[in-house]
Amino acid sequence: MFLSSKSLEKEKDHVEGFAPELAWVTKAGDKDLEVPVAIRPTSEAVMYPYYAKWIRSHRDLPLRLNQWNSVVRWEAKQTTPFLRTREFLWQEGHTAHLTEELAGKEVLEILELYAGVYEQLLAVPVVRGRKTENEKFAGGYYTTTVEGYIPSNGRGIQGATSHCLGQNFSKMFDITVEDPANKGSHIHVWQNSWGLSTRVIGVMIMVHGDDKGLVLPPRIAKTQTILIPVGINKSTTPEDRKKHEEQLDGIRDTLKKAGVRAESDWREGYTPAWKFNDWELKGVPLRIEFGPKDAAKEVVSWARRDTGEKGTIPIAEVATKVPELLETIQADMYAKAEKSFREHRLQITKWEDVLPALDDKNVVLIPFCGDGKCEDRIKELTTREDTQPDVPESQKLPSMGMKSLCIPFEQPEGVVAGETDCLSPECQRKAQFWTMFGRSY
Question: What is the spatial distance between Cα 246 and Cα 234, in angstroms, rounded to a whole number?
Fold first, then answer.
């Protein structure tokens, strides 16, 4: 958790990139520390001295380690639960390889795993791409990323990153192996790092949630289906109540055997309507209602959390129909989010169209030269002065400037490297690629 200033000295470029976010411990109790101690923002300085000891031969490669831990990045900006917090839990992987080719292959493999977490589990679409030089990992060779979109405010958000560190850190920490192609000489290993944090939860909540509460994709919901008894009242006899309980719990058990994470809600003292609201708040994907009238018809009634759509299923078919319905919900949630992201990802070729597009809750693809100073200027040009400090944020135009989100791997047509002009009005360079810009977290 703690890093001495000495251990950070080797990583000048890396530390400079994190300097604004580094938190320092300067006192222990009532005594000042002779040497301040940094709270870890990431683990390179902790792990790589050991890599230098563990890696002795090319046969020790690849070395691939993963750990779950919390880190601290002391943001000066306003924090946002899950999305931008000073301390967060994450998974970080650190690997070492013999060649650039092997390292690069893994970078993309990991990025695709992260994309799968978002798209296949969380039903959140992402754009895969490469970070600009300004936005890449401090001290790294290059950074790849998956970028999402928050429809409620039109901001982009970094979902996860997979970095190729090149040989930068292996040179800092002297991580070498004998060159198998040239015996007697040594080469520095190629390294990667990659991470996914609890931010994924915040992205999922903001993409799918509504005014009623959470909306959870079935594949990650702890409870996929909640069964709620209805039609039970004071006039119901104990015998009828017991029979109803047995029927409802029997349906629940059938669903569990079919692989559905199902629960029944027999809490006393709460009306069915209160329970409906409670489970909607928790985001459970599917609600099943079962009462005497349903029993007489040998059906269950269902309601989807995502759309509110309702219907019935014969009791004899719940083991097949409910899993199918859950997969439909998963697919529909992804399709809705993907449509929103696609419709709010605009290709812009005129500078005067940029700010209106941002104000209309879009991210933009623009022809961009890739120069870091040009990128900084684009952010300045799209930043508004806040002239209404006392007005709630929701009631005034955003003042935040746009920054680059990524250079998408899938490039639309329209930019010819070396021929198309960079869109920035003050830039005289030629564009190299379409780059996705937006207001972001």
Answer: 19
Domain boundary (153, 175, 208) is at: 208
Range of the domain at 136: 2-208
Residue 38 pLDDT class (50, 70, 90 cuts):
confident
**Which spans in 74-134 are helix H?**
100-116
φ and ψ of 49, to 5 deg? -60, -30
How is the chain split among helix, strand and coil, in percent rounded to 5? 35, 30, 35
Q: Which two tokens stand for residue 437?
A: 């810009």
Write out the two tokens for 199: 């931010």
> Would the pLDDT of 17 be above 60?
no
What pLDDT, on the 0 to 100 scale, is given for residue 11? 61
- Specify whether 199 is located in the same domain as 260: no
* Residues 287, 224: Cα–Cα separation, whole Å: 9
Residue 163 near residue 93, CB atoms below 8 Å: no
One domain for residues 271 and 303: yes
Residue 217 lies in a domain: no
In a domain? residue 203:
yes
Cβ atoms of 244 and 295 closer than 8 Å: yes
Model-wide pTM > 0.85: yes
- What CA–CA distance (Å, rounded) separates 137 from 17? 8
Amino acid at 255: L
CA gap 420, 368 in Å, rounded: 9
Model pLDDT for residues 154-175, shown as the tens digit of each residue: 999 999 999 999 999 999 999 9
User: What pLDDT digit, counting tens, does each position of 302-314 carry?
Assistant: 999 999 999 999 9
- d(CA 48, CA 341) in angstroms, rounded, equals 39
Q: What angle do CA 411, 416, 419 make, to 5 degrees?
A: 150
Quick: pLDDT tens for 276-295: 999 999 999 999 999 999 99
| Domain count for the chain | 3
Residue 37 and residue 165 in one domain? yes
Q: For residue 83, which of 198, 196, 5 has the smallest C-alpha distance?
A: 198
| Choice between 200 and 396, residue whose per-residue pLDDT is larger | 200
Total length of the chain: 441
- Closest by Cα among 251, 266, 337, 240 to 300: 251
Whether residue 63 sits in one domain with residue 164? yes
